[in-house]
Write the structure tokens for this entry.
Amino acid sequence: MTTTTSTSAPTPQTSRYEAVIGLECHVQLATRSKMFCGCPTDYAGAAPNTHVCPICLGMPGVLPVINRIAVEYTLLTGLALNADIPQATKFDRKNYPYPDLVKGYQISQYDLPLVKGGWVEITVGADTRRIHLERVHLEEDTGKLTHVSAGSLVDFNRSGVPLMEMVSQPDMHTPAEARAYLRKLRVILRTLGVSDADMEKGQLRCDVNVSLRPVGQSRLGTKVEVKNLNSFRSVQRALEYEIGRQSVALDNSETIVQETRGWLEHEARTVTQRSKEEAHDYRYFPEPDLPPIFVDAAWLSSLRERLPELPDARRERYMRDFGLGLADAEALSSDQWAAHLFEGTVAAGAEAKMAANWIQNDVARLRGDADGHTLDPHHLADLLRMVDQGEIGNPAARQVLPLVYESGRPPREVVAEMGLGLVSDTAELETIVRQVLEDNPEPVADYRSGKLAAINRLKGKAMQASGGKANHAVVEDLLKSLLNS
Amino acid sequence: MLTSLSIRGMRDLLARREVSSVELTRAHLERIEALDASTVRAMLTVTREHAEAQARAADQRLAAGDDSPLLGIPVILKDVLTTRGIRTTAGSKMLEAFVPIEDGTITRRLAEAGTAMLGKSNMDEFAMGSSTENSGFFPTRNPWDLDRVPGGSSGGSAAAVGAEFTPFALGTDTGGSIRQPGALCGVVGFKPTYGRVSRYGLIAFASSLDQIGPFTRTVEDAALVMNAIAGHDPCDSTSLQAPVPDYAAALSGETSLEGVRLALPREYFDVQGMDPAADAVVRAAIAHLESLGAELGEVSLPHTGYGLATYYLIAPAECSANLARYDGVKYSLSIREPGSGLWDIYERSRGEGFGREVKRRIILGTYALSSGYYDAYYLKAQKVRTLIKQDFDSVFETYDAVVCPTSPNVAFALGAKTQDPLAMYLNDLFTIPSSLAGLPGISVPAGMVAGLPVGLQIVGKALDESGVLRIAHAFEQSTDWHTLRSPIAQMHPATTTP
């Protein structure tokens, strides 16, 4: 069974319940080297086990050394989240056996994370509210298993890549809020430059916790964790499915089992992976190979100076300086790619509201989920200017944009090649207009007798005669001057 | 005899060109090849070609006028220190075929200092034991009496120095694994302050306790080796940044201990289980220190009694994680058959690869860290560890060093304690507390009981290696216990029986 548009979740009387949602995100930091060794992190596309050394292979006798940049990226994230940065923090060992975990333990942080608390602001519809975070800590990524018919293969290129775990409080109530929260996290991470946070590439991974309770009840229901969500859409769909599933169960007086479920993208449903009874005892204890980290005021203030303009501040600026409404300002500022294009386009001379509209509609459709593509802001600005000055019409601009987007060629060149430019040549248009006046004596008489609206009929005829390519403004000027002469 | 000289003695001959490093190295290799297998069995791997190549390179440097203190000197490494291209077993079947792809920091520092590595020595598996009987391969014997143990876990290195297979060897000390075998084999065994010597390349047993140190025939030699191996290593985040003094230069010929205050902790004397004859030897040694001018005072280290229990929570807890990587999936022993599931591979590889003592400690440590027990065991042990450290801190406010026995007994017979782990653990009673406190400690030959050596332990303040070495040196230079040679040391390579 495949579903492409909506989930196959049972349809319950969800209105009786309130969902309580928390997100646990794993973010690969964009450091050049790994968390505890000097191996490069740019393993994408590399042959298996080529970005490895004795340390990230966990060979006997090796020791970890903390990547300072990874710590700073985490602290920057904490500052951007308005969080507490404790003065002392440490690493711990999280013990569990698995073939992708080279040492049999993961170096992580248990009771003293680098970042505590914090919040982000999300806007869903007309509501803007804060979603609080529990903590942000730093750990190392694992290797990657591939199962083949002959057995399982393991690639340790990813082993030891710095991973930041961001745990939200159970502060969200709808899948849309969860999605808005994720988007906000992503734009903050990208604005800070600490991660590319591309979900499809596994740089941003997300597990959700969701429980239901009757509306009005304050006690939390039994929570279910859903893993294996690798796109914004799957987060939203999995939540919709789970809320539906749990609602039906509660409607039928069934007990919700505390468990970990997996999201099956192609079947659009969640399935049981592990129950609470099978949960690991990770036997955390302080990592004896690493000294504690002390974050002093001087270090923090030097990091604070490095903070760029953050999305919320950017949103306020868009509203203040460009006169955008909340929805436009929020949408653009929550999307690093769009924000960059927007500011570039406006700087290149485009009108702000027009740029905002185009970026959120026509450009957004072209972009889809692909973030890698770039659109030259000067090209977009040129295109909008041509529309604005009547050189081309909106339909023509919509035809041109995809070609400019795909090819990276200047819009003027594409317009010329396709013959989409509007005719503004007065001499050429005068011939057409004179013919129209000659062929349509009735509206001409009407106009001259004082029914000025009759000019619109004449304009329509002239446009028709020009094959839609006549410049409206020029046609109107010509009509007026000829009718009034 | 060439092979019975100290490092200093050999170095003088090398400098005067009376002997080459190749000759010196071959003389030691000959002893090992002729004697080891039939006597102490100190060696797991002998690396003749490697040693000769290093010796040839050393001879070239010597010819060029290089006067590095360890240049051309043979060495044996405990098989827990990684050596590139040379198998490193940690005394375990689990790593029987493991060949590291890089040298550890200390292996590299010694190579750069110009030593010639003769081979890798036997040890208790993963450094867990006090007799070297827990080796996954075979037990090592004491060069003073082949029916007795050399101590452990660095028994191979201690026996190799005692048998004059090498002028010095490196061991590792987690709870006494250098000092105790040093005492039992009648050689100098020195454990530096935790963090003084890099652990990068030391296959971990208990990360917060493990420390590399030398076995030598003299205190001055220990200082020379320390000069080569001590100091910060960016690859070991727990290694200390403190500057390293010239340990050897600090040792004068002066044997006076005038003005030196030595503490005698009452918890280390009149202890149940202490061999009275060994006790008498230690007391005589302390009286001798007094005769050199040292001021003695009785003190209390009140939490000493908790040392063993604390150690046997912290060390197993750390080892339970450190040994998790040997899972039969990667470089270690892997026992699998077609169709074996993951857990089959884990269970069979670890079941067959690890010995009893290692399994015992993994289970102990896993238990101590388990949910619901962590606070009662591991966390409590860490708190007691702090108290033990504070005991020493307060004594060091008044005293320069603590003196006490190294081991409650002389070398015991093979098999005598293998059935009783607790009796075995008690052998480290006097070395464990200072290990938990991370302090430097030395064992120097201090007398004999029925033909078996007894060690005197001197424990100093953190980073005061120089103070410990100075006291030990004064003792050594005014006694001749260190000049006694074991029966195996006296064997000529041509003879085949002791």
